[in-house]
Amino acid sequence: MTDFVHDILPCGIEYAVSPLPRRKVVCFQLRVLAGMVTEPTNKLGLMNLLGETIDKGTEKYTGQQLADELDAIGASTGIGAGRETVTFSCTVLPEHLERVVELQAEMLRTPTFPQDMLDVNIDLAKQELSTLEDDASGLTEKMIGPLAFGPLLGRHPLGEVATLESITRQDLVDHWKKHFQAGNILLSVAGNIEPQRVNDVFEKHFSTFGSPSKQGRDPAPVEFTPKVVHRDKQLEQEQIAICWPGVDAKHEDFPVQQVMLGILSGGMSSRLFTEVREKQGLVYWVSAWQETPRGCGMIFLGASTTPQNCDKTFNTLLHEVNRLAKDITQEELDRTLTGILASQETRGDSTRSRSHELASDLFFHGQPISPEEKADKYKRVTVEDVKRYLSTYPRDKMCVVTLGPKALQQSSIPSKAEVK
Amino acid sequence: MNDPYILETLDNGLRIVIELMPDVRSAAAGFLVDTGARDEVAPQAGVSHFLEHMMFKGTSKRHWSDITTDFDKLGSSYNAYTSEDRTIYYGWVRQADLDAQIEILVDMMTSTLPEEEFQMERNVVLEEIAMSKDQIEHVAFDFLQEKVFEGHPLAWPILGYDETVKALTRDQMLAYFQQRYAPDNMMLMVAGNVDPGEVMKSIKQHCGQWKPSGTKSTRVPPKMKSGTDVLTMDRFKQQIVAITIPAAPAGGVQAEIASAVATILGGENSRFFWNIVQTGLSPRASAFHYEFADSGMMLLYGSCQPENCEKLHDAMRDEARRINDDGVEEHEVQRVRNRRRTSLAIEAEVPYHRLTQLMDDMQYLGQPRTVEQMLSEVDQITVDAVQDYMTKFPLSAAGHLVSVGPRDWPGND
User: For residue B404, which of B283, B306, B284, B281 has the smallest C-alpha distance?
Assistant: First the structure.
């Protein structure tokens, strides 16, 4: 069985360590439980700006000096602002762990948010909003997000021009003070490292970092709005996105949902790839996936196709999901399960993947879950479970978004979806 | 450390490389076919890529649906891709499934290119081309290659053009396939915690009877053009500004230096980042070293609001000129070395990543390199070595400027 250590540091950081003694690196993720959902309504884009500016100056270093110090130990780092968290990830050789944690603590605890850097980052965010118009799939995501998740979880990281222009340095400082506290942080570590060393080094650098009491653990409210929306745009291909509610990552049917998605879109022998692409040649890209903020789950289907194939592609996508409940076979279930389990094992060779997996466990389940336990849950999924899932969570209300030169014909659209 | 490689060439010319990775639980295998877009003739532009799709469409042993089903039954992470000078097919599986994985890949290489699938797959490729036209980066890069390599096979897009893909016949593809997909033009590579004797035995059993085609490379080194070209496209909001300058070809220390220069100029924590991006001029300004066996180019690439084209162009040129004239600082070189050490450690733990590195090494150097050997080459990057590189491949060269976006710049506006 896989060994983990899961505990809370005296400073309040909840952490999990997966020691992998033969690995050559250590990977960790610090997740601050404050994402876009914590932005004030009139300050949309704040968390992205905070993530872009927090490493541009600390009490001790300028932004460039901080980057140079990280490079001096070859640390590979990244910052990502998401719906519910801001994630600080790092991969480093084991001998440099102490130094990199010291630098991460310097950045998280004493950022100065230099005004000139903030001004530049606001300007860059406005430019990126403008150039989002050149990104057809990114625009489609932006259109479907608010319909799928509502005004909080459906926010776009870049915000809006007007809200970006209203964001001040003081807004960043206030938000940082409110949310960047040890009790609001999850830490996952994997690699060639002793758990005690993790405990010692993080406690040393994060002690007295704000309140140690647990915060940020509650899911944000979700608001699903079934609607059909089309936006005309001069494109070679029509972008199609469909979504409907599923179950969240903690739900007992979550493994069934993952298997269902695997059958639809897990490999090149999956239903969508086979039926939409290989048999009819309608698309190059087609996919089914899930997005699962805490407390909710949404199922998405996506494809891009030339306008003359748009309705046929849309109809085939829906047909394939509906057909699954009737004719799923044991053979394709077994194949999908093998895919999930094999992927877990092959990716387990990557320390970075193990660290991400651990971070995800802490975030969704509040504890690490061994690969063996996860595998057992998948192995228990049956054909009947998938059929039951598909009848229990009906698809009578859905969001449909298209972007491109041609709207769907009315006859293609499910009758219960409201047309905008 | 003991050499972790086993290399062998079969009588029919197929080269085999196995890398032993005792600490992992997975294994990766892949074919590198020494053929790509630059090996095509102009009227058949895109045949290499279209053929790569067709290789999944059936053999005398497997229907197309059996190929993908058999891959998925192993839980393989598999795919294929085509570039200017290679086509790759790979699968990454649990260690115990390696033999079965190799068998499927080997079988695929004997594709019958089924006639009945040809038209359907053509539609898929045409959809892929349509998708690429909606991506400004893709449009810009294709335009850049078309202009820089004008008159040379590197000029046409890997996907081909609508017209050439529509006009291609199965017989033309079959002729190309028979000529290029022969053991003396291919390599099979494996990385993982494997029994090399068993793997080699299995490969010989599967591939030993393949017949060589005697294919000889007809590749001619390109002459990179200097000049300026503009593609005005109103449908896009941003402007892409790209400058190409001749650089070292792939393989060896000169390529490592070129890669280091690109990192210092336009990687993370680079001169472009602090002096261009963080001034608000451009959300994205980067430098890349593009390499082929016989040529290379340094690509300075940025996107901006159309009104900022001149400033972005001048800023990228200034930074390149500054490195050319004043050289680099010791701490910048050290940073590259430190980063590379970490990235090599990350790469060394995953068989799939090692497989891709093996393919690079075998194609461009003719032999694999251990992580230690690569680190030793990285250690040869010094301030003086960079200065010496600049005398051979000056970054102050005029190169070729390409501008793509809504503005006719530098042009008539």
Answer: B306
**pLDDT band of B230, cuts 50, 70, 90:** very high
> How large is the angle between the packed helices B330-347 and A63-72, nearest 10 degrees?
60
Q: What is the DSSP letter of B301?
A: E
Name which of B126, B235, B238 is nearest A234 (Cβ-Cβ): B235
Mutate to test the interface with A, among B342, B355, B371 (most CBs of A within 10 A): B342
Distances (CA, A) of B267 to A80, B274, B297: 18, 11, 16
How many residues in chain B?
413
Please name the member of B133, B278, B282 whose beta carbon is closest to the beta carbon of A236.
B133
Cβ–Cβ of A280/B72 closer than 8 Å?
no
B220 touches chain A (CB under 8 A): no
Say how far apart CA B28 and CA B90 lie, in whole Å. Answer: 7
Residue ranges of domains in chain A, CATH in brackets: 5-206 (3.30.830.10), 228-412 (3.30.830.10)
Residue type, A121: N
Q: Does the pLDDT value for residue B48 go beyond 80? A: yes
Q: In the beta sheet, which residues pair with residue B81?
A: B88
Residues A310 and A363: beta-carbon distance below 8 Å: no
Tell me which amino acid residue B391 is: T
Distance (Å, whole) CA A128 – CA A56: 19
Number of neighbouring beta carbons within 10 Å of residue B256: 22
Q: For chain B, which domains are there?
A: 5-207 (3.30.830.10), 227-405 (3.30.830.10)
Determine the residue among B23, B54, B69, B72 to mutate to test chain A binding: the one whose Cβ has the most chain A Cβ atoms within 10 Å: B72
Q: Scan for tokens 């640390």, then name that residue.
A: A75
Give just the sign of the alpha carbon dihedral A162, A165, A171, A172: positive
Question: From its phi and psi, is residue B48 left (phi > 0), alpha (psi between -120 and 50) or beta?
Answer: alpha
> What stretches of B36-164 adopt beta strand conformation (E)?
77-82, 87-94
| Cα radius of gyration rounded to whole Å, chain B | 22
Residue pair B395/B323 in contact (Cβ under 8 Å)? The answer is yes
What CA–CA distance (Å, rounded) separates B137 from B402?
12
Q: What is the mean pLDDT of residues B223-243?
A: 97
DSSP A291-302: E--TT--EEEEE
Cα B22 from Cα A26, distance rounded (Å): 19
Helical spans, DSSP H, in A90-160: 97-109, 115-131, 136-153
User: What Rg value do the Cα atoms of chain A yield, rounded?
Assistant: 23
Residue-wise pLDDT tens digits, A39-51? 999 999 999 999 9
The average confidence (pLDDT) of chain B is: 96
Quote the pLDDT of residue B252: 83
Chain B nearest CA to A398, separation (Å): 26
**Residues A328, A354: Cα–Cα separation, whole Å:** 32
Question: How many contacts does A have with B, using Cβ atoms within 8 A?
Answer: 185
Residues 6+ apart with CB under 8 A from B84: B36, B37, B38, B154, B158, B292
Q: What is the pLDDT of residue B413?
A: 63
Contact by Cβ (8 Å): B142, B111: no
Q: pLDDT at position A239, please?
A: 98
Report the distance separating Cα B138 and Cα B132, nearest Å: 6
Structure tokens at A324: 């699954």
Q: For A262-310, how does the pLDDT look when each residue is reduced to its tens digit (9 = 90+)?
A: 999 999 999 999 999 999 999 999 999 999 999 999 999 999 999 999 9
B72 neighbourhood in chain A, CB within 8 Å: 266-270, 335-336, 338-339
Is residue B108 helix, strand or coil? helix
Whether the ipTM is more than 0.90: the answer is: yes
What does the DSSP assignment read for A78-90? EEEE-SS-EEEEE
Of residues A315, A304, A276, A324, the one with CA closest to residue A403:
A304
